[in-house]
Design brief:
This protein is an alpha/beta fold and 704 residues long. Helix content is 49%, strand content 12%. The protein is built from 29 helices and 19 strands. The strands form four sheets. An eight-stranded mixed sheet has the order 12-11-10-13-14-15-16-17, sandwiched between helices. The longest helix has 21 residues. It is globular. Bound molecules: (S)-3-Hydroxyhexanoyl-CoA. (S)-3-Hydroxyhexanoyl-CoA binds next to strand 5 and helix 3.
Amino acid sequence: MTEPSPVRYHSEGGIAFIEIDNPPVNALSAAVRQGLSDAVARLAGDADARIAVLFCAGRTFIAGADISEFGKPPVPPILPDVVATLEASVKPIVAALHGTVLGGGLEIALGAHCRVAVPGTRMGLPEVTLGLLPGAGGTQRLPRAVGVEAAIDLITSGRQIDARKALDLGLVDALAEETDPRAAGEAEARRLLAEGRAPRRLSGVPAPAVDADAVHAWRAKVAKSARGQIAPLRALDTIVAGLGLPFADGMAQERQAFTDLMQTPERAALIHAFFAERRAAQQDDLAGVDARPIRRLGIVGGGTMGQGIAASALTAGMDVTLVERDEASAAKAAAGIGKMLDGAVKRGKLDADTASRMQSQVFRAVTSYDPLAQVDLVIEAVFESLEVKQEVFRTLDRVCRPGAVLATNTSYLDVDLIAGATTRPQDVIGLHFFSPANVMRLLEIVVAGKTAPDVTATAFALAKKMGKIGVRSGVCDGFIGNRMMLAYRTAADHLVLDGASPYQVDQAVVALGFPMGPYQVGDLAGLDIGYATRQRKAPTRDPRERVPVFADRLVESGRLGRKTGRGYYLYDDASPQGRPDPEMDGMLAGLRTDLGITPRDFSTEEIQARYMAAMVNEGAKILDEGIAARASDIDVVLLHGYGFPRWKGGPMHWADATGLDSIAADIRRFAAEDPYFWQLSPLLARLAAQGGTLAEPKTGKDAA
Ligand code: 3H9
């Protein structure tokens, strides 16, 4: 039996209605492409129809090509041909837009002869965010619709614009007042019929003139912001080259560029990241488990983290009660949250009235735990000490209603031990937000030994409600992200002990695509935090563990990082982002002499190999121990919490793409010098030997 087409055709009153119904986002699968071509052919022969309305069922107009088809052989009809067929129609076609009109969806709309958008429609060409460029005429038709500069801006940034902006640019012809796309399209079609308007084809519009200076400036700008990515520059070149060519030739070179980019590792990595983010929320063991209702949120602790969580929850429409220890701290927290909401207003994320209503009506800062008796979920965000947190949880256990979810925002501590302080460990879970919590999208959901399934489901529901990406982690020191960070930071410290300068390490890491190196991050966070942890762990430290004595010396001489104007770097008015300290080399040389270390030279490649190997090795251990359920979850954590370059897909994807055998060989080589730190993950060793991948590790049983 053949599947019904996802494209329906129906005509009445002189108008043909072409409706795409391909949930969830009307992506342009092979069946949709075929259905659209068939519909245009039918329109040509339909004696009753003089014009057509193209619209979509469900929550959005077409959100693009079907990404899941990428990397596979293309199935005809290919999208550029479908757009050409649509544009060639002798009867006008009105595209009626709603939801998010993206990528190939916008290219289809550009092939139509008129575009009308309902309120709330957003549109863009996000292909560069997937390592591609618009490959169905977007680089050729968009400049003809909106001009060269606006087209370069939209295509090389991949950003979305709203319908009002689209109207101003000339990307849409009209804004509808009604929200139903079919009705909006019909009204527009009737207007065009009354005017007797012929189809207006963008391919027939003369290409706008190119201003060489402006293009030069754009190139410099894109090269800077695209750092490490090839698609944005290729897109820019494709737009500009097309302007000097006949339309068909412009299309041919766009196709070539699209096909070239499709073969790149950046495209594979970016699409991996796209699906990894969505897969993180899929939890097979929670199928059919209902989340508990969460409307009212409690927060204990109004420091930077508590404030960020509060602002994020308020923006998500939740009612928030924040507990602080005294009036002054409560007032300070409230003021901090007010500032964050004002920032959201300035960035256009929130309107001013809503922000002020949130602060006066749905938010309260209190100094007693009693109001927490009303909340559905409470997040503890106090000082990172097990004793302090256990005390908070004993109080929450006394105060909160049965069934309330009790969450800790600890970033390292044992959630089982925190849950053990209550009489209801099944209600306790870790919710590790990242700072600033009102901006960072990552949320590690730490499921403890006794956490009930519906509590885990509630945590995922909360992440979704707050617009965050929840990633599940088991309990271990530092969970997924901080445990991995400790590993690669340690590898960096060993490099510095053995002869590299912190600046050389930072540069090598930035060259990999991270926004900052580990010592720049250290200066920003404050060097006293790591120092305190090292002091605490000193009595139980394994004697084989190498200590970054240089970091201790910095702190002991009062150099705590940016906040004191000196850390690894020097900070002053002339160099607010920091500049290398000329005394650093001398300090390190003296220290190596004291420790009896003969310094060695490390190349950039060697630094990068060690940094990445430490990260991958720890990730493989995390996967093997079941702390993370899948490699892609680890990638999402590093991409969204630790600045891992998105166009490399995350450390696990990077490792699979690089080859596990070469990484395992590197680790064995490093282990010859330091067998304690460089203990090869058994999973990595096995996969390397079998030619397997971390993305699909065979379990012990399968592998046998
Ligand atoms: C392109 O168009 C190339 C052309 O220029 C040239 C071609 C020749 N394909 O995000 P959500 C799935 S490149 C396949 O959770 P939201 C998604 O995986 C494309 N599947 O919802 C998820 O599945 P599941 C340019 C897709 O409401 C489900 O839909 N377009 C696609 O938060 C719901 O997605 C883009 O880059 C797709 N194109 O956000 C747009 N899109 O339920 C990419 C989504 O199994 N998409 N899915 O996990 C988006 O930005 C968001 O999905 C959107 C909805 C804003 C549309």
